[in-house]
Amino acid sequence: MSTNPPDLRPDLAPKAKLRDPARPGQPSIGMVSLGCPKALVDSERILTRLRAEGYGVSPDYAGADAVIVNTCGFLDSAKAESLDAIGEALSENGRVIVTGCLGAEPDYITGAHPKVLAVTGPHQYEQVLDAVHAAVPPSPDPFVDLLPASGVSLTPRHFSYLKISEGCNHKCKFCIIPDMRGRLQSRPAHAVMREAEKLVEAGVKELLVISQDTSAYGVDIKHAEDRGHRAHITDLARDLGTLGAWVRLHYVYPYPHVRKLIPLMADGLVLPYLDIPFQHAHPDVLKRMARPAAASKTLDEIAAWRDICPDITLRSTFIVGYPGETEAEFQTLLDWMDEAQLDRVGCFQYENVDGARSNALPDHVPADIKQERWDRFMGKAQAISEAKLAAKVGSVIDVIVDEIDEDAATCRTKADAPEIDGNLFIDEGFEGLSVGDILRVEVDEAGEYDLWGKLV
């Protein structure tokens, strides 16, 4: 049992969980999946294709004939983490194929690790398969190698990420994701629904909808309708809400049409939860970021959302110490937080990223000031979280069980996404529970980020 740390990085997916050891003599591939949930979905797709070709999936280096490292290039610190992971895989296994966001910079990777077998970019599934075939030829056994209809999952069986689009049309100066993953490419709505239906049929209790820009879903294909489903986030959310699973929306930009999602939350079709990357609140900082600069209107939108759905949980991420950020601009962010009263908050200290336009901006903030502002920001966010959770003591809420050990059942409420938010712990009478159970719990204790409760 562990409690939620206050500085948990909001760009990380749950740690990949590998199951189903290989049969004797079966060629086997290991997978190290770094970065965000979108990268984790890419890892699942790669392994699903490999399983269909007769490969096993190894949970450790020793049992793998080769290892795929799916990298992250979100920040320079994430790039360094990716290089470390590649180096570890080379040291422990020796046969390494690199893919993912950092794969868009092959010279950067091979300059540090010239012995990698191949480097491919993000969502280049065919190239990854070609590299695996060259390194470890397939040897399928049609009588033994059966692929489940739901494919290979790297998350616990009771929840799954559902990627609805790839790429992004925004041009934020601090971000190079559009350069690596391209412009918005939405999946057809009927294909998303078919995948969601299969997941629910396989026992998934929670669908986490992800993309680079969820609220822009379908813009690139003119919200096309096909086979009874329209490619618009409001229509898709409504359709997903009919499947009987929890539906959680991530990475939603606060466009005006987002307000149409809130009645679906009030009606229980999707979870009353919005993950919105506000990034800052001062209009001048937002302008330097090349983001919409209407923080006051955002407060009006938040108030309107809460009027429609009082139980809505709002999560966001912010950047402190952006180039040129003054003390007054930072104070505006703190004051905005006092008004917005967001439920769940993550925060980055600004970092230069190779290729980002923000690198060229003047007046970069010294490291010690960035750290001091991060401490102040997270202190305020923690105080808001603590007060909001204390107000839940005595209430009866629904939770989903994520993990059970000898000390407690670790659960999440509708207000908590896996890994990036808090937990609810049941430490008495939990022996008969199972992972994936959805329960009614009375909250009897609250901390800074987590809750404790008892079964009702």
TrEMBL record:
<dbReference type="InterPro" id="IPR058240">
    <property type="entry name" value="rSAM_sf"/>
</dbReference>
<comment type="function">
    <text>Catalyzes the methylthiolation of an aspartic acid residue of ribosomal protein uS12.</text>
</comment>
<comment type="similarity">
    <text>Belongs to the methylthiotransferase family. RimO subfamily.</text>
</comment>
<feature type="binding site">
    <location>
        <position position="168"/>
    </location>
    <ligand>
        <name>[4Fe-4S] cluster 2</name>
    </ligand>
</feature>
<feature type="binding site">
    <location>
        <position position="36"/>
    </location>
    <ligand>
        <name>[4Fe-4S] cluster 1</name>
    </ligand>
</feature>
<dbReference type="InterPro" id="IPR007197">
    <property type="entry name" value="rSAM"/>
</dbReference>
<feature type="domain" description="Radical SAM core">
    <location>
        <begin position="154"/>
        <end position="387"/>
    </location>
</feature>
<feature type="domain" description="MTTase N-terminal">
    <location>
        <begin position="27"/>
        <end position="137"/>
    </location>
</feature>
<feature type="domain" description="TRAM">
    <location>
        <begin position="390"/>
        <end position="456"/>
    </location>
</feature>
<dbReference type="InterPro" id="IPR002792">
    <property type="entry name" value="TRAM_dom"/>
</dbReference>
<keyword id="KW-0689">Ribosomal protein</keyword>
<keyword id="KW-0411">Iron-sulfur</keyword>
<dbReference type="GO" id="GO:0051539">
    <property type="term" value="F:4 iron, 4 sulfur cluster binding"/>
</dbReference>
<feature type="region of interest" description="Disordered">
    <location>
        <begin position="1"/>
        <end position="29"/>
    </location>
</feature>
<dbReference type="InterPro" id="IPR013848">
    <property type="entry name" value="Methylthiotransferase_N"/>
</dbReference>
<dbReference type="Pfam" id="PF18693">
    <property type="entry name" value="TRAM_2"/>
</dbReference>
<dbReference type="InterPro" id="IPR023404">
    <property type="entry name" value="rSAM_horseshoe"/>
</dbReference>
<dbReference type="GO" id="GO:0005829">
    <property type="term" value="C:cytosol"/>
</dbReference>
<keyword id="KW-0949">S-adenosyl-L-methionine</keyword>
<dbReference type="InterPro" id="IPR012340">
    <property type="entry name" value="NA-bd_OB-fold"/>
</dbReference>
<keyword id="KW-0408">Iron</keyword>
<dbReference type="GO" id="GO:0103039">
    <property type="term" value="F:protein methylthiotransferase activity"/>
</dbReference>
<keyword id="KW-0963">Cytoplasm</keyword>
<dbReference type="GO" id="GO:0005840">
    <property type="term" value="C:ribosome"/>
</dbReference>
<dbReference type="InterPro" id="IPR006638">
    <property type="entry name" value="Elp3/MiaA/NifB-like_rSAM"/>
</dbReference>
<dbReference type="GO" id="GO:0046872">
    <property type="term" value="F:metal ion binding"/>
</dbReference>
<feature type="binding site">
    <location>
        <position position="101"/>
    </location>
    <ligand>
        <name>[4Fe-4S] cluster 1</name>
    </ligand>
</feature>
<keyword id="KW-0687">Ribonucleoprotein</keyword>
<dbReference type="InterPro" id="IPR005839">
    <property type="entry name" value="Methylthiotransferase"/>
</dbReference>
<keyword id="KW-0808">Transferase</keyword>
<dbReference type="GO" id="GO:0006400">
    <property type="term" value="P:tRNA modification"/>
</dbReference>
<feature type="binding site">
    <location>
        <position position="72"/>
    </location>
    <ligand>
        <name>[4Fe-4S] cluster 1</name>
    </ligand>
</feature>
<feature type="binding site">
    <location>
        <position position="175"/>
    </location>
    <ligand>
        <name>[4Fe-4S] cluster 2</name>
    </ligand>
</feature>
<dbReference type="InterPro" id="IPR038135">
    <property type="entry name" value="Methylthiotransferase_N_sf"/>
</dbReference>
<dbReference type="Pfam" id="PF00919">
    <property type="entry name" value="UPF0004"/>
</dbReference>
<protein>
    <recommendedName>
        <fullName>Ribosomal protein uS12 methylthiotransferase RimO</fullName>
        <ecNumber>2.8.4.4</ecNumber>
    </recommendedName>
</protein>
<keyword id="KW-0004">4Fe-4S</keyword>
<feature type="compositionally biased region" description="Basic and acidic residues">
    <location>
        <begin position="8"/>
        <end position="22"/>
    </location>
</feature>
<dbReference type="GO" id="GO:0035599">
    <property type="term" value="F:aspartic acid methylthiotransferase activity"/>
</dbReference>
<keyword id="KW-0479">Metal-binding</keyword>
<feature type="binding site">
    <location>
        <position position="172"/>
    </location>
    <ligand>
        <name>[4Fe-4S] cluster 2</name>
    </ligand>
</feature>
<dbReference type="InterPro" id="IPR005840">
    <property type="entry name" value="Ribosomal_uS12_MeSTrfase_RimO"/>
</dbReference>
